[in-house]
Amino acid sequence: TVLYVFTLRLVLYISQPTRMFQQLKQRFIAKCGVFVRHCAIDKSDSESKCYYCGVSKSEHQLRWHCEDTELVSNDPLVHSKWTQVSSIGEETTGAYGRIRFTGPSARRDEAAHYVRLSSESDCSIALGVLLNDWKVPEPSIVISVTGGSSDFRFDQKLKDSFSAGLVKMARSSGAWIVTGGEHSGVMKLSGLALCNCLSGSGGVPVPCIGICTWGRQHGSETLEKSNETVEYNSVPKPLQSNTTALDPNHSHFLLVDDGTKRRERTHQKFHGRLNEEIMKHDFRHGMKVPIVTVLVNGGTGSLDTVRESLRQRVPVVVVKGSGRCADVLAFASDCAKREMQANGKYQVSWTTEDHLELELKIKDVFTRRDMTTRSEKDEQVFNVDVVATMVKDVEKMVTTGLENKKSPLLSVYDALDQSQSPSLRELDYLVLVMVFRLLHEKCAGETDHSNTSKILRDAVKLAIDWNRTDIVRDEFLSVAFNIQRASHDIRVE
């Protein structure tokens, strides 16, 4: 009887991940119209092509995805344009397991976990997979690193300072580091920094979680397996157009599938919803986990990420000197004029000269593909409307980030500014100060003493984890007695 019970429990334990992953969905082509010979292909090609996307019929049978393209003829067999809503369906995910990276860039000894999931998947289930199935330790803070998705020039001193700050936060606080998970740009830099800090040190692996777009990943067909370990080359040559590879120095991957192929940033909305799920989730006996977005470089798409972070009241740290989007926001923040209003908030404005200089900065740092149109003479010229809209958008975001005096949501990290105090040139210090100021704001708005005590306990626990009780003492001087009480309770525990 004992042996039977033990065997039954073992079977249930082994099958549990399968049952859990069946709650997640993936997307695929449910219908994609009529398969006819595409007018643009070679007539000698005997295989029919999808009328809407040009992908072959056999590839659709393999459940490859397609693009929403314009119709190319008036074929009577086709009655409606292909749409994502009508043509893409969902089914239980069949792609999850572990990835063992190969190639010279692979440095992690352990295989990484991965799962393919629908862009509409329930984020509470995805968080449950991270915590319960993959056994990722609960975080004290989540650092979301976003920005340049392609390799860019980075001042070595600034690069070293950023990497050191990221490592310090991860090792001292038990943070989750979350990126776009690709083997390029700031995602590659983050993975490499965290991996290097563990090489030969015997340290505890730091969770480095990649939230990626499934339809852009090179070799995604090799990942369409259930509960297996697959080999994956992170440096394929050559890469197909508009595809990318997974970074080998990440530990976990959420591969977000919206049913399209080779489109960028289709994972962003899911990432935003997951952030909201994390912020409302109860960790560590009721502790709420803060999230901070760190922007390094970045293109026009990074503005969307920053805007969403500010909407969710997630603090944003901009790494000045890293280029492009980060430098634009840093410039707009540095030259902003702030005037205190009766409601206790700043009125943020810019002089005419600063406004024009910001416009020139935007033209200077963004690519012509982002900012130009074709003139009548077939010359590339800056689209005035696009530039004006972007200037207005940047100023609006900076206003949102700076208007609250006690808890600004936007801060500029400048490691190269020797006029600043040494503490302000430390990334972990700046991140923690922003988190504490938000917690202080919550305390000020609370009338329930028990809720105030709970927020203070969260702040003190985080400060102890980071060994920075000096910051929490300075930021909460008005409630010093409660801090002492909260500190005492935590030490007793």
Describe this structure in words.
With 493 residues, the chain is of the alpha/beta class. It has helices at residues 2-21, 57-61, 84-87, 123-133, 156-173, 185-196, 268-280, 300-311, 324-334, 352-365, 368-371, 384-402, 427-445, 449-466, 469-475, 480-492; strands at residues 25-29, 35-36, 49-50, 88-92, 96-102, 112-118, 142-147, 176-179, 208-213, 226-233, 252-257, 291-296, 316-319, 337-340, 346-349, 372-374, 380-382, 410-413. The longest helix has 20 residues, at 2-21. It is globular and about 60 Å long.
Summarize it.
By secondary structure, the chain is of the alpha/beta class. The protein has helices at 2-21, 57-61, 84-87, 123-133, 156-173, 185-196, 268-280, 300-311, 324-334, 352-365, 368-371, 384-402, 427-445, 449-466, 469-475, 480-492, and strands at 25-29, 35-36, 49-50, 88-92, 96-102, 112-118, 142-147, 176-179, 208-213, 226-233, 252-257, 291-296, 316-319, 337-340, 346-349, 372-374, 380-382, 410-413.
Report the radius of gyration as a whole number of Å.
Answer: 25 Å
Order of neighbouring strands in the sheet with most strands: 10-5-6-11-9-8-7-12-13-18
Count every helix, treating DSSP H or I runs of 4 or more residues as helices. Answer: 16
Strand portion: 15-25%
Structural class: alpha/beta
Mean pLDDT: 75
Major beta sheet summary: 10 strands, mixed
Report the helical percentage. Answer: 40-55%
| Number of E-state strands | 18
Distance between termini? 41 Å
Question: Would you spell out the secondary-structure blueprint of this structure?
Answer:
Blueprint: H1 2-21, E1 25-29, E2 35-36, E3 49-50, H2 57-61, H3 84-87, E4 88-92, E5 96-102, E6 112-118, H4 123-133, E7 142-147, H5 156-173, E8 176-179, H6 185-196, E9 208-213, E10 226-233, E11 252-257, H7 268-280, E12 291-296, H8 300-311, E13 316-319, H9 324-334, E14 337-340, E15 346-349, H10 352-365, H11 368-371, E16 372-374, E17 380-382, H12 384-402, E18 410-413, H13 427-445, H14 449-466, H15 469-475, H16 480-492
Parallel strand pairs: 5-10, 6-11, 7-8, 7-12, 8-9, 9-11, 12-13, 13-18
Antiparallel strand pairs: 1-4, 2-3, 5-6, 14-15, 16-17
Helix pairs in contact: 4-7, 5-6, 8-12, 9-10, 9-12, 10-12, 13-14, 14-15, 14-16
